[in-house]
TrEMBL record:
It is an enzyme of class 3 (hydrolase). GO terms for molecular function: beta-glucosidase activity. InterPro entries: Cellulose_deg_GH3, Glyco_hydro_3_C, Glyco_hydro_3_C_sf. One of its GO terms (biological process) is carbohydrate metabolic process. Its EC number is 3.2.1.21. Keywords: Glycosidase, Hydrolase. It catalyses: Hydrolysis of terminal, non-reducing beta-D-glucosyl residues with release of beta-D-glucose. Residues 1-105 form the Glycoside hydrolase family 3 C-terminal domain. Gene3D superfamilies: Glycoside hydrolase family 3 C-terminal domain. Belongs to the glycosyl hydrolase 3 family. This is beta-glucosidase.
Amino acid sequence: VTPRDGIEERAQSFGVEVISRSTVMVSTSLEAARQADLTVFLGAGISRENEDRPALTMDFWAHSLIEKLAAEGPVVVLMQTPGAVMTPWRDHPNVTAIAALFLAGE
């Protein structure tokens, strides 16, 4: 079960509508956030065997998008990362929760 699938299943059992936007279009994500009472952001950091990570950030545009989503309303951030990650948006008043979902291992 992916985090998104679990959230959708549980939310629907309580009669909560889930608007899911898995997209590279920031404008689409922001429009969905404007319609929502709460945004749940799922982000990740990728690592490889025998290589250092190039940065202590989540991949792609995650940090910028979290800041933009928080400007629209409350955000819960779920991060699946291989270790420590920077969270420059953690003190934003609309970032209401952060959960680090570390890799499960072998």
